[in-house]
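User: I need a structural model of Putative pterin-4-alpha-carbinolamine dehydratase from Salarchaeum japonicum for a docking pre-check later this week. Nothing fancy, just the predicted structure tokens so I can convert them on my end. Input:
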Amino acid sequence: MAELLDDDEVENRLPAGWTRDESEIVRVFEFDDYLAGVAFASEVGELAEEEFHHPELVIRYKEVEVRFTSHEEGGITGKDIELAEAVNALR
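Assistant: Understood. Predicted structure tokens for Putative pterin-4-alpha-carbinolamine dehydratase:
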């Protein structure tokens, strides 16, 4: 099991573009059209499956919201930060 990060650790390690929403980290990615967002969400899904750490994905018209948390631990862990960085690398 991964250890929960304390508030300072989350703040210091939060990747570019991500914010904290209580026990989750979140980022909204913008796209030129709907299908570009769907393709991105698919890439995120493949990455998540490889790492067996699955975010909540919300696909909207020209944006995709990605949320990470570690449910088993009850908050944000280093795994969430690592996956957020990997998602950033997709863009």
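Before docking, keep this in mind: The helical segments are 7-13, 34-51, 78-90.
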